[in-house]
Specification:
This protein is an alpha/beta fold. It is built from 13 helices and 14 strands. Strands 1-14-10-9-5-8-4-3-2 form a nine-stranded mixed sheet, with helices on both faces. A three-stranded antiparallel sheet has the order 11-12-13, covered by helices on one side.
Length: 462
C-alpha cells in the first residue's frame, strides 16, 4: 500500500467538455463586507478575520520589482521577448493570527518562491483571455488586466511538489529540448498569452521555497494563511497587480488548496485585489465521492475487466473504505486523507501489472492509455522530467531564477513537506464550495483519461 495519497499531473488535455459551475449570487466585490452576513455556515476558523501584518524584516525593506527581474535564463533563445520575474517572498504569518501553529512561530523563516511571466499581449474587447471563463462575461485585458496565481500541488506520498511542473511542462511558455542538457524553447498558446501568470511553490519547503527544518505547515488554513501573507507582500513589490482581476488556478491536490486560499483571500481585510474566480483541473476535492469512483472509472475505461478477480478484490477495498468513512461520521466528517482508502487505487494499479521484455509495467495513473514501469505507475511521466530536474538543479540556473537562497538542489517533490502535511483537522474543500459559489465563479475541468483524481462522480453529486 502507498503511504499516502498520490495526486498528480493533469494527464491529458481536457477532452471532455469543461464544467463551469455558476455562482448562485454575487454580492459585490470579492472580500466586500456584503459577504460577512453569510459566514455563519462556514467552519469557525474560516469566518472573517483581520490578519495582523507580521513584523517587517530587513528583506522586506530591500524588495522592489527590479530585484526580482529575470533578464534571461541559461539556454533561453537570445531573441526571447518573455518578461519574467522571480524570487523568494516571506510567507510567515503573524503568530497572533488565528490558527497559528508551531510552523508559524517566530523561529520559522518560511519563504515562498514565485516565477512570474507577464502577458505577451494586451487583448482588445473581442479577445478571450480564458475561453472557459469567457462564458462568465469576463472583461478583456483592455478593460481589466488579469492575473493568475497558479499553484501546482501534487502528491508523492503527500503534497509538496513544485509549480515548475506547471510552468515548464503544462501551461507555461517554456519547454526544454529533449536530451539537449539545457536548451529552452518557447511554445505558443501558453496561459501568459493574454494574462500574467504567477507560479508559486507552496507550501513552504516545496520546490525552490524554503522553511526551517521541522517547521512545515500541517493544515489547510495554515497553508492558506501563508499564501495570504505572500500575496500581501507580493503586492508591496508589484502594487499595480492589486488592481488586476485575479484568478486562482491549479490542478490535482490544488483542488484542496484553492478553495481554502480563495476563502482566506475573501475573508482577509489586507488583500484588496478583486478575486474573480478559481479554476481547478482534475481536482482532488471530495474524497468521499472520489474514492469509490476509482473502481467505476477503472471498469468503464477497461483498466480492469468486469467480473474479474481484480474487480472483486478492489470492490472489497471500496467496501472497507466506505465502512471506515461511515464509522467516522460519514460525508461531513471525512478528512482530506484516509490512508485505508488508498488501497483502492493501489489495488487497481497492481491488477494491471504485466511483464514486457522482462520489465514489469503498469497503467499510467495520469493517462490510462499509457503504461509506466512498476511501481511508478505514472510517477516517471511525463518524460520531460528527465531534462527538467538536472536543469533546475544547476547553480547557474538557480542564480538566474533568483533562487540561490534555497539550500540544496531542486526536487520535484519534497518528501518532508508531504509527510508533514496530512491535514488531519481540515475538512475537505468540497465543504467550502457552496459559500464560495455565492461569491465567485468556479471552473472545473478534467482530462477524460485521468485515473488519479477521477472528477466526474463528485461533480454530478454537487
Amino acid at each position: 500500500m502507498v503511504a499516502g495519497p498520490v495526486r498528480n499531473r493533469l494527464s491529458s488535455p481536457p477532452t471532455v467538455s469543461p464544467r463551469q459551475v455558476e455562482p448562485r449570487t454575487h454580492d459585490g466585490a470579492a472580500g466586500d463586507d456584503a459577504t460577512t452576513n453569510k459566514t455563519a455556515r462556514s467552519p469557525r476558523r474560516l469566518q472573517r478575520r483581520v490578519f495582523p501584518r507580521a513584523p517587517i524584516t530587513e528583506l522586506d525593506t530591500a524588495m522592489s520589482a527590479a530585484n526580482f527581474y529575470i533578464p534571461t535564463l541559461p539556454g533561453l533563445p537570445a531573441d526571447s521577448t518573455l518578461s519574467m520575474y522571480g524570487g523568494h517572498i516571506p510567507s510567515l504569518p503573524s503568530t497572533s493570527q488565528v490558527g497559528a501553529t508551531s510552523a508559524t512561530s517566530s523561529e520559522s523563516d518560511a519563504h515562498l518562491y514565485f516565477f512570474m511571466l507577464k502577458a505577451r499581449h494586451i487583448a482588445d474587447k473581442e479577445r478571450t483571455i480564458f475561453w472557459s471563463v469567457k462564458r462568465r462575461g469576463l472583461h478583456s485585458a483592455s478593460a481589466h488586466s488579469l492575473s493568475i496565481l497558479y499553484s501546482d500541488d501534487r502528491f508523492n506520498g503527500g503534497p509538496g511538489c513544485s509549480s515548475f511542473d506547471g510552468s515548464m511542462m503544462e501551461v507555461g511558455p517554456l519547454r526544454l529540448e529533449p536530451g539537449s542538457k539545457g536548451t529552452l524553447k518557447e511554445i505558443d498558446s501558453a496561459w501568459n498569452e493574454y494574462a500574467n501568470v504567477v507560479f508559486v511553490d507552496q507550501p513552504a519547503g516545496t520546490g525552490y521555497s524554503y522553511v526551517s527544518t521541522n517547521k512545515y505547515v500541517h493544515e489547510m488554513d495554515e497553508a492558506a494563511n501563508h499564501v495570504v501573507e505572500f500575496m500581501t507582500r507580493f503586492y508591496t513589490v508589484f502594487p499595480e497587480f492589486q488592481r488586476h482581476d485575479t484568478y486562482l488556478a491549479g490542478e490535482s491536490f490544488a483542488g484542496q488548496y484553492i478553495p481554502y486560499i480563495a476563502r482566506a483571500i475573501l475573508d482577509s481585510a489586507r488583500i484588496k485585489t478583486p478575486l474573480k474566480g478559481v479554476l481547478i483541473g482534475n481536482g482532488w476535492i471530495d474524497p468521499y465521492s472520489q474514492y469509490p469512483a476509482y473502481l467505476d472509472f477503472a471498469l468503464q475505461s477497461g483498466v480492469i475487466k468486469k467480473g474479474s478477480a481484480a474487480e472483486t478484490q478492489v470492490r472489497q477495498a471500496v467496501k472497507e473504505c466506505m465502512d471506515a468513512l461511515e464509522s467516522r461520521g460519514g460525508k461531513l466528517k471525512v478528512k482530506v486523507h484516509t490512508g485505508l482508502c488508498e488501497a483502492i487505487l493501489q489495488g487497481i494499479t497492481d491488477a494491471t501489472v504485466t511483464s514486457v521484455n522482462g520489465l514489469d509495467v503498469c497503467v499510467n495513473n495520469y493517462d490510462v492509455r499509457l503504461t509506466d514501469s512498476y511501481p511508478a505507475c505514472g510517477m516517471n511521466w511525463p518524460p520531460d522530467l528527465a531534462d527538467i530536474t538536472p536543469y533546475l538543479q544547476r547553480e547557474d540556473v538557480k542564480k538566474a531564477f533568483h533562487a540561490s537562497r534555497h539550500d540544496g538542489g531542486w526536487t520535484e517533490c519534497n518528501g518532508g513537506v508531504g509527510s508533514n502535511f496530512w491535514a488531519s483537522e481540515s475538512v475537505p474543500a468540497v465543504q467550502l464550495l457552496p459559500k464560495l459559489l455565492d461569491e465567485i465563479p468556479v471552473l472545473l475541468f478534467a482530462g477524460d483519461q485521468d485515473l488519479i483524481c477521477v472528477s466526474d462522480a463528485w461533480v454530478h453529486r454537487l
